[in-house]
């Protein structure tokens, strides 16, 4: 039987994982990427085209390497835990090369439209029109994986800021911000306290005359460097903590977080204390912000009530004069123009089963990948979504009835509304382990702790108490990877390795306690693991 042909739209991290999953399941992928490279958002470009996602030059990812890697391809142990975008691109290139993905990507090719074929009810097939160098081409596919990202279209709410039209300084969305050189000695307002707003305020705080960080509701600020210097996500996202959250309730976790975050710095004293609790908002992560506030380089202000020619009046009546620049770090909106009315999005609200499948298709042959905003990490979630989607396309996993799917969508929305502050940035929130387990159960790869404790207690302990790394979803079931056990048992060493750039006598003793040449052994395993001859 001919292989099913799958169109993958976008070659960012979601698209790369999707191509690999198609190949693993014996499908024939063709990936269309409008730009000339892989990596999507993470490929820094000084002058990106209007429709491309775009980052500032200094962006360092907020999620740590062991938690964010592809599940069968650990990040080299000498790479830092939190990687600069260049290092991320190195890793994505290694992944694409290792699994030979590049030959499935058609670069500089934009997907113009995706429409059901006339016999869709029987075939489930799609007509896809793509455009390359001005020439259009029509192609037929058996399935579609939409990996087009959701941080491309800036949300610029100018209507909420009276007087902005008469403001004589310059203003723009954070997507346009690239680097600090042009802002030396300026007086700057950054609006929005998401990760873009805080990163940019901190970076500009080093060179500007004064930075004001304006927020309408404040935020809890988490930090990357958690207890004992371990990465925050690998410390918090463990099955043990997830279990505790279930039995102790979200309120107890909020209390713990508030205490921990306030003991680092008092959020009320620093003008950041919100009305809501930590788990009710997408996390803002910054180790540097409190340093900038305490040294006066960044001043926290409430929302801007009105702009004048050169000044800004804030909600509390205070006025800041002679403002040169306003940066709207006010987030993103998303849409799927090439899908026409197949998926409608209103104020970032979308109705997709498990945030992936339109519930009313006659045949489940289209899925959206990576359309999630996790209290966690997008990459491994997107990869797992693709693993499930391709099995649905092949008929190995069945979707429930339309009615059941719609009920599930409604329930998810209700739960989200109950937990999160109502705002356009909280429409596709998921909790990392909970959502990974939900999808993993559908794929048949959720690790069975009970069996593990009986058969391999050492591994079971690390799976339960250690960081819930993506390798856990390669221990069993379809797509099982022989290297998964070892990857889990050596994950802590890969976290520590890049930190030990000066070997202290204490560090040496610790290394020895793992056995002679432990680090070298872990490293040579790492080298072997990227060699298909040895492990695959
Ligand atoms: P993208 O990276 O946006 O890739 C989509 C690709 O699809 C692009 O290459 C685009 O050209 C292509 N495309 C779109 N439409 C078409 C079309 N019609 N035809 C052909 N090609 C098309 N997430 C985390 O988990 N951790 C982080 O720390 C983190 N940091 C972030 C920092 C910033 C500044 C921002 C803005 C986001 C961050 N994110 C983070 C979220 C980020 O979106 C994901 O990390 C990740 O980049 C999503 O990958 P993606 O492949 O889904 O989308
Ligand atoms: P975001 O998380 O959506 O934050 C937008 C901010 O703007 C929020 O504080 C929001 O406040 C505010 N805002 C929106 N509309 C407003 C309005 N009309 N008036 C006043 N304030 C308004 O956007 P982002 O910071 O660009 O982040 C986007 C994604 O990229 C997130 O997933 C983030 O984690 C990620 N990111 C990561 C890094 C990193 O890894 N280093 C860096 C940057 C971004 P409300 O909460 O009140 O709506």
Protein model, in words:
- It contains 18 helices and 22 strands.
- The strands form 7 sheets. It has a 5-stranded parallel β-sheet, with helices on one face.
- Strand 16 (312-314) and strand 17 form a beta hairpin.
- It has helices spanning 13-24, 65-68, 85-98, 120-123, 195-205, 232-236, 239-264, 289-294, 378-393, 402-419, 432-443, 449-455, 457-465, 484-489, 491-496, 505-513, 518-529, 532-535, and strands spanning 5-9, 28-32, 105-106, 109-116, 126-132, 135-141, 143-146, 153-154, 170-173, 187-191, 210-214, 221-222, 284-285, 298-301, 304-307, 312-314, 319-320, 325-328, 332-333, 366-368, 373-375, 429-431.
- Residues 512-536 have low confidence and may be disordered.
- It is an alpha/beta fold and 536 residues long.
- The structure holds flavin-adenine dinucleotide and NADP nicotinamide-adenine-dinucleotide phosphate (NAP).
- NADP nicotinamide-adenine-dinucleotide phosphate (NAP) binds next to helix 5.
Features:
single chain; alpha/beta; five-stranded parallel sheet; 18 helices; 34% helix; 16% strand; disordered C terminus; binds flavin-adenine dinucleotide; binds NADP nicotinamide-adenine-dinucleotide phosphate
Strand-helix topology:
Layout: E1 5-9, H1 13-24, E2 28-32, H2 65-68, H3 85-98, E3 105-106, E4 109-116, H4 120-123, E5 126-132, E6 135-141, E7 143-146, E8 153-154, E9 170-173, E10 187-191, H5 195-205, E11 210-214, E12 221-222, H6 232-236, H7 239-264, E13 284-285, H8 289-294, E14 298-301, E15 304-307, E16 312-314, E17 319-320, E18 325-328, E19 332-333, E20 366-368, E21 373-375, H9 378-393, H10 402-419, E22 429-431, H11 432-443, H12 449-455, H13 457-465, H14 484-489, H15 491-496, H16 505-513, H17 518-529, H18 532-535
Flavin-adenine dinucleotide is lined by residues 9-15, 32-35, 40-42, 52-53, 55, 59, 61-63, 110-111, 147-149, 151-152, 196, 338, 370, 377-379, 382.
């Amino acid at each position: 039987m001919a292989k099913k042909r799958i169109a993958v739209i976008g070659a960012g991290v979601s698209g790369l994982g999707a191509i690999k999953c198609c190949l693993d399941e014996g499908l024939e992928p063709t990936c269309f990427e409008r730009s000339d490279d892989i990596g999507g958002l993470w490929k820094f470009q000084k002058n990106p085209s209007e429709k491309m996602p775009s980052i500032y030059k200094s962006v360092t990812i907020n999620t740590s390497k062991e938690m964010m890697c592809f599940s069968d391809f650990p990040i080299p142990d000498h790479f830092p835990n939190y990687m600069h975008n260049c290092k991320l691109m190195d890793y994505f290139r290694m992944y694409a090369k290792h699994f030979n993905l590049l030959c499935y990507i058609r670069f500089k090719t934009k997907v113009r439209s995706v429409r059901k074929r006339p016999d869709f009810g029987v075939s489930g097939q799609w007509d896809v029109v793509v455009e390359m160098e001005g020439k259009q081409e029509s192609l037929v596919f058996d399935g579609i994986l939409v990996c087009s990202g959701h941080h491309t279209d800036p949300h610029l709410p100018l209507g909420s800021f009276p007087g902005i039209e008469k403001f004589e300084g310059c203003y723009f969305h954070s997507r346009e911000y690239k680097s600090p050189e042009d802002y030396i000695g300026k007086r700057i307002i950054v609006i929005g306290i998401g990760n873009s707003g805080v990163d940019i305020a901190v970076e500009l705080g080093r060179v500007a005359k004064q930075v004001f960080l304006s927020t309408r509701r404040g935020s809890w600020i988490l930090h990357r460097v958690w207890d004992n210097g371990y990465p925050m996500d690998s410390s918090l996202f463990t099955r043990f903590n997830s279990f505790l959250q279930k039995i102790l309730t979200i309120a107890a976790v909020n209390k713990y977080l508030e205490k921990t975050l306030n003991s680092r710095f008092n959020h009320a004293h620093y003008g950041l204390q919100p009305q809501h609790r930590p788990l009710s908002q997408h996390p803002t992560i910054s180790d540097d912000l409190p340093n900038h506030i305490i040294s006066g380089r960044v001043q926290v202000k409430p929302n801007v009530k009105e702009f004048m020619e050169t000044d800004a009046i804030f909600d509390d009546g205070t006025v800041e004069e002679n403002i040169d620049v306003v940066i709207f770090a006010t987030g993103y909106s998303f849409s799927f123009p090439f899908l026409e009315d197949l998926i409608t999005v209103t104020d970032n609200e979308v109705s997709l089963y498990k945030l992936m499948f339109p519930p009313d298709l006659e045949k489940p042959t289209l899925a959206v990948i990576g359309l999630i905003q996790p209290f966690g990490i997008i990459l491994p979630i997107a990869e797992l979504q693709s693993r499930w989607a391709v099995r649905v396309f092949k008929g190995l996993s069945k979707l429930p009835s339309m009615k059941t799917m719609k009920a599930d969508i409604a329930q998810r929305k209700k739960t989200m509304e109950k937990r999160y502050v109502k705002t356009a940035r909280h429409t596709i929130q998921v909790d990392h382990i909970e959502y990974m387990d939900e999808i993993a159960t559908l794929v048949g790869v959720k690790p069975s702790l009970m069996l593990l404790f009986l058969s391999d207690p050492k591994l079971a302990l690390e799976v339960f108490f250690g960081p819930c790394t993506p390798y856990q979803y390669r221990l069993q079931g379809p797509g099982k990877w022989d290297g998964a056990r070892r990857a889990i048992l050596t994950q802590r060493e890969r976290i520590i390795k890049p930190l030990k750039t000066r070997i202290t006598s204490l560090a040496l003793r610790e290394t020895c306690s793992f056995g002679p040449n432990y680090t070298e052994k872990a490293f040579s395993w790492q080298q072997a693991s990227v060699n298909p001859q040895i492990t695959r």
